[in-house]
Amino acid sequence: MTPLDKIRNFSIIAHIDHGKSTLADRLIQRTGGLSEREMSAQVLDNMDIEKERGITIKAQTVRLDWKGHVLNLMDTPGHVDFAYEVSRSLAACEGALLVVDAAQGVEAQTLANVYQSIEHDHEIVPVINKIDLPAAEPEKVRAEIEEVIGLDASEAVLASAKTGIGIDEILDAVVAKIPPPKGDATAPLKAMLVDSWYDPYLGVVILVRVVDGVLKKGQQIKFMNAGTTHLVDRVGCFRPKIEQLTELSPGEIGFITAQIKEVAQTMVGDTITDARKPAAEALPGFKEVQSVVFCGLFPVDANDFEKLRESISKLRLNDASFTFEMETSAALGFGFRCGFLGLLHLEIIQERLTREYDLDLITTAPSVVYRIVLTHGAGELELHNPADMPDPSRIESIYEPWIEATIYVPDEYLGSILKLCQDRRGIQKNLTYVGGRAQVTYELPLNEVVFDFYDRLKSITRGYASFDYHQTGYREGDLVKMSILVNNEPVDALSMIVHRSAAEARGRHMCERLKDLIPRHLFKIPIQAAIGGKVIARETIAALRKDVTAKCYGGDITRKRKLLEKQKEGKKRMREYGSVQIPQEAFIAALRMGDEG
Amino acid sequence: MDAIITEPLALYIHWPFCVSKCPYCDFNSHVREGVDQAAWRAALLADLAHEAALLPGRTLGSIFFGGGTPSLMPPATVAALIEAAGRHWRFAGDIEITLEANPSSVEAARFADLAAAGVNRVSLGLQSLNDEALHFLGRAHGVEEGLAALATAQRHFGRVSFDLIYALPGQSGEAWEAELERAIGFGTGHLSLYQLTIEPGTRFATLAREGKLTPADPDFAADLFELTRERAAAAGLPAYEISNHARPGEESRHNLTYWRYGDYAGIGPGAHGRRGSRATLRHRKPENWLGAVQGSGHGIAGEDPLDAVTQAREAILMGLRLNEGLDLARVRAAGAGEAIDADAAARLERLGLIRREPARIVVREAGMLLLDRIAAELVGV
User: Fold this and answer.
1) Is the pTM of this model over 0.95?
2) Which of A487, A521, A523, A551 is the best residue to mutate to test the B interface, defined by the most B CB atoms within 10 Å of its own CB?
3) ipTM of the complex
4) Is the domain covering B2-160+246-259 a CATH 3.90.226.10 domain?
5) Are A503 and A530 a contacting pair, CB within 8 Å?
């Protein structure tokens, strides 16, 4: 049993690219967790996508030995979509290293994480990283940390994870400044389920932080919120290689396995207790994960539906935070309606399906969850799919989710940011200037953000803006379902719920895009955007006039026939709707509002 | 099948050599320093004999010398091939023997000998009545020389046709209209009027890819096509196929065999043939073909048995090109009556693009320019 005063649990807060992973690797290396030879770049980020995007999706932890102390480094998920997971990881720690790039300074996302860390009563140790860069301005950054965040940065450690400067000082500061955990080994077991993932050899691996009592191999445990019991068959920690232990005592972070087959059986934030001697009450802060953004995923080739089902089911084994149920679209055939924690989460799942499972997918417009109050006291319903929108006569009112967004941006781009937020029905809450940068807070309807808000933000600020948000609740909105009709037939996969004030512009834009994306046919094709029976925008694709082989004699027959047979392949990538062939690219591209505004 | 066997057979003979390669041409043509004429003559005769042995007892309705530039063939070779064909098969009384010719003065000088050899129809590659356009098309002759060759041809052969290429980059409607009127004025019984198409692998395809050549706008080309059909019909030369116009009775019988999906023997480099339910293909490269004939007595590179659906598809693809329409008996003869998608046919008829008759499917005037699309829909791909 490790004495409490010899344990330190901490996380690293850093903006993407500010060197979190490199620093983590350096700490592991310095404390002897891995030899030089074993270090592959960024050990803690396991997945390809994590490596490419520089974000962590699953919490990872590593146990370090430093001058007689046990340090547990918790690598937290690095994106707002995983805010709840982040909060559980933070709850497992007593402090954090705040890593700020000596050349870039403080970013919005960093701020949000620092505030979250402060809310958890963490002791924060500032580290100014990349001081070896020619553009490094450590004193300016030191002042920024004090001014923007309000932390005392006079003792900030100056470091370069890349070259190894300041690593020992960081480890010493962790021991000296971050308080040891509290806990009672004699009390009934209380451990927090921080995260879990599926391992093909071990089954579901559960990351835990013991608060009270002792977690042992062979123990019968109970998940207090899920209500299930399991037998612990392994206890251990990561260094980062797996080390098996016999028990985990208060204050310790480690893992257990308990012959659990699906990640869905474990809920992040749940309290693990002894089934025979349960704790009186669960740890605070548990929330059931809820999907925020929904979209339909359909195979491009209808024959791939079963493959898609299997792939989604397999992914779900390892990520219980997305949901799926079968969906049928008149336009797209069989697919799945999937729910995600946010847009990035959506993208990650979509990308994994494409990349790891080799699937060609059509993704429908992302939609948020609307609450609809029905007339005549018929109750309320949650709407995940615009196609399920009840007839307007049955709707009393519609509520939509709102967020509070914090955007941090160089001054010169502020004007375009304000315009973007204004165009998206934003309500400005706050605007402050720090150095050459502005921090602006807006309330925004989430449905305005799920459309290409990130893309627009990135393009108008050339990538210099950072963005962070949290949901603030539901508000009533003047929302309508906009249908898109191709050749007078509504295409369900293209319908969307929009604010009445934005409907016309968006409808016009959609019609224009589709006009470019749908090839000419043997007949002219009207494309309309409509609210109910009222057409609000219209375009027409003229009939094709010429598609003929001018010269065709004997020899050409074989070639002509083969060309004809090849067309069959091309048609697989088209969906027929109201006798119009719509290429799958049209579904994707039409929903990208890229050149708007 | 019996009905088809009693139909006259068509014979295609390919001469692969050209003086130079035109930038729009994707036919099997090659430029060579010298040709061993004796060896080529012997080889063509051998290839012909091989094919004839496999198609015994047929009546020959037409012979077509194509290329390449068959007007560069020694007239004696042409004569020997016609004579040999007459020994292998029985000539129909009205046999049509066509030769493709370049309208140069050198070639025009051979017209008398070619006529004496038995050629009774020439198809002249005039291509344009505008010197600038001829230059753009990479043609060696000028307008004046070409028209002189046309006049010579009209003196020597009973039937003369010539080709024009239109919808050239930058060509105005007025310019084409004037050119067409002038062409009609020469009084030939047949005209082949092609829109310029950019074929893969040609010099024009490269230029188009590099942005140095902009093909005519398809909608404008469609306007030109309609104008062409109207004017030619008014002058007594209605279209009987997409790009071919003739005074009634002056249609190319040889090409009608292709479009009606009859049997045709194809000899010489790269020649295709349809022998019963088999597709035949000769070696494309002249040297390979020659070597093959010298080694094994024929130039066949491959023979593909065509299944019923494939034959039906080919019959549809070809038959729809004709104004007379697709003879449904042809599709049924292939044994794949279901090859036509009835729903698609009904849809196309509603759109006014085709007309369904009891024995035929006829593409209407409005549908002619959309033939590739219509064919694809009808065969249900």
Assistant:
1) no
2) A551
3) 0.90
4) no
5) no
